[in-house]
Amino acid sequence: MRIQLSDHFSYTRLIRFTLPSVIMMIFTSIYGVIDGIFVSNFVGKTPFAAINIIWPVLQGLGAVGLMIGTGGSALVSKILGEGDKKSANRVFSLLVYISLGLGVIISLLAFILMEPISIALGAEGEMIQHCVLYGRILIPALTTFLLQTEFQSFLVVAEKPNLGLAVTVAAGVTNIVFDALFIIVFDWGLAGAAAATALSQAVGGIIPLFYFIFSPSSILRLGKTKFNGKAILQSCTNGASEMTTNLSMSVVNILYNFRLLQTAGEDGVAAYGVIMYLNFIFISIFIGYSVGSAPIISFHFGAQDTGELKNLFKKSIRLLIFCSLAMTLIGILSAKPLSIIFVGYDSTLLSMTERGMMIYCISFLFAGINIFASSFFTALNNGAVSAALSFLRTLVFQILAILILPVIFGLDGIWSAIIAAEGLSLIVSLFFFIKMKRRYQY
């Protein structure tokens, strides 16, 4: 039975509707993890560390797609909730065309500046060459990466979350197959890993693009549009929190790498890379739920259905608390076997990674509510509150923690910085939930 945005959502219906987005985000994380496993085990520890140094920059460049996808989908969902399908399609088309243009411009600049960027991030000697090689092969696919990120949200708005899942699975399988082919069979090393990831991003961006162009039954269709500065500004403002999160994560990851190079050298950077790969898988559950539920919230906000808003908020909080407890326990129990998959060939690095992961997992207790809080206010078209939550969570609190805690606790202080940041963020999230309740009637 088809689930529509206008439906009343029980727990079962809510889980069924958001599950494709959750699985989609998990697969997105997993195929990035597979890349790391292949490089770490078949190319070497130094190239693996190099990827972890340059990846935050590549991730940061993709923030534009995340901003337009989350902010734009909230706006388009709201317009659909108001009953104006024609305007919704015009805004949708405009945002996609802008993304295509920005992707090309950003790609050209990043390709030219890849070497000085690598040096500025702290890469030295052989590691500079690895960073530049990986980055310059991957950067031509940035435009499709922006579209892939953006369409993950718009496919949910189009009531096609299962198609989004299928596309993500196809992209993931592409990455895994070509990783094995390029790295193991052809022995292309780091270049092969970058090429496999670029191909997977192309698959993830182009298939949905064709769907929105050619599908006659789609709620959203790419077509004629006209410039709408207000819609662009509102989408960017609305999605600023998600872009802030992405950019902040990039900045913080860079800071982590600097701290780890000082404290534990190349092994520290490699261990942090493993923890980040595993963290992406766990956090993707929270992100997927937030992405999947946001269009529903936006639709009922546009329709002024406060009763359903209350229902969605209450059920979401309960589901997230349950998931937070379960994921923390699973993360701690699986820290060693998951670490072995990446760095089982080096006992010292394995021990460091396992301990770091066990400490880091405690942050999952708080992360789910914090991620949902930012997405929730984006869905309500309150970009200011959403951006403030993201800015504090992913940048201010983490920078303060990573600067202070290692001085007191050494390497353990680096691993536990995220716990302090998420704990402080939870306090802020709860404050805004309470403060805004009367305004939005949720």
Folded structure, characterized:
It is built from 17 helices and no strands. It is an all-alpha fold and about 450 residues long. It has one domain (about 10-440). The chain is globular, with a radius of gyration of 21 Å. The protein starts with 10 loop residues before the first helix and ends with a helix. The model has no long low-confidence stretch (mean pLDDT about 90).
Helical fraction equals: over 70%
Supply Rg: 21 Å
Task: Categorize the overall geometry.
Answer: globular
Query: Average pLDDT, to the nearest integer?
Result: 90
- Biggest sheet architecture: none
User: What structural class do you assign from the helix and strand content?
Assistant: mainly alpha
Structurally, how many domains make up the residues? 1
Strand content range = under 5%
What features would you highlight for this structure?
globular, 442 residues, 17 helices, mainly alpha
Give me a quick take on this structure.
By secondary structure, the chain is mostly helical.
Explain the layout of strands and helices.
Elements: H1 11-43, H2 45-61, H3 63-81, H4 85-120, H5 126-138, H6 142-157, H7 161-185, H8 189-214, H9 229-238, H10 240-263, H11 265-302, H12 306-333, H13 335-343, H14 347-360, H15 364-379, H16 383-409, H17 411-440
